[in-house]
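If your schedule permits, I should be very grateful for your opinion on a structural question. I would ask you to consider whether the tokens describe a fold that such a sequence might reasonably adopt. Thank you for your consideration; the sequence and its tokens are set out here.
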Amino acid sequence: MTLHLVGYFPAPDLPDDNKLTVSTVQLGRMLFYEPLLSKDGSQTCADCHKQPDAFSDIRQFSIGVEGLPGKRQAMAIMNLAWHHNGLFWDGRAPNVRDQALKPIQDPLEMNESLSNVIAKLSANKKYTDQFVRAFGDASVTSERVGLALEQFMLTLVSNDAKYDKWKNGQATLSDSEKRGRMLFFTEFDPFGTERGAECFHCHAGFNFTNDEFMNNGLDADAEQTDEGRWKVTQDPLDQAKFKVPSLRNVALTAPYMHDGRFATLESVIDHYNTGVKQSATMDELLQYNIQPGGLQLTVQDKADLIAFLKTLTDQTFLENPAYQKPE
């Protein structure tokens, strides 16, 4: 089985030890929508990663089975086949299979033990039959659960937005969308009249992310309450750095930032225009954002940027029946 790629997307570097198969992807899909993975049978992976919302959570913080909020905003799940620099906001999961098992065990999320998950799935003939199809025998293990979930999530590919159709010569951008694109991909010129928005430095390429961890100037040093990547690496240079998310389907994945502090795209653009705060690890690419007047974006500039960002919405991805709850 191979991923369905459209146009200019490069072939992903899929894991050699977990080749995609129809049966294993189907098992992962079943598990993604399975409430047995949670402590009380009330929650699934899909409850915090909804397909109509680009597999994101529109709540600031997801609520787990104990009624407790998570500590960070749930990231959207898409195009994980091209992420190779750690997953979650702090990169603590080295790969998708590892990432898939953590919410199951997190007390703030599904709050279940892997041993209980194995016992519940092993007692369910629907699942033992599918494990036979996927792995050749009915043995249910946490490793196999992770591998199956990994396979399904690797198939969640978003690459058919209006922007992609334009890149492939199948659509035309409006004047506002064109201007927003130019702003997005243009550097700010402090000595001239060019009002570039500088977005492309961090959100470049086909997936609109550099797959790095960066401090984007949300808080000054004294205001930081989440150490970000530092909690994983213990490197002072990683203080308050977080994974740069893909901007694909960004119009649907509010609220924004690791703590969901911004409810709208307008607020995000205002942050980068005039709201960036200096701190010890703030990325040097934001040097012009912290100058008086920031990037000097006008009301029209902001509207055009948002028009362009909306061209990254992929309706095919949002409605693909292969990603929906299995019958």
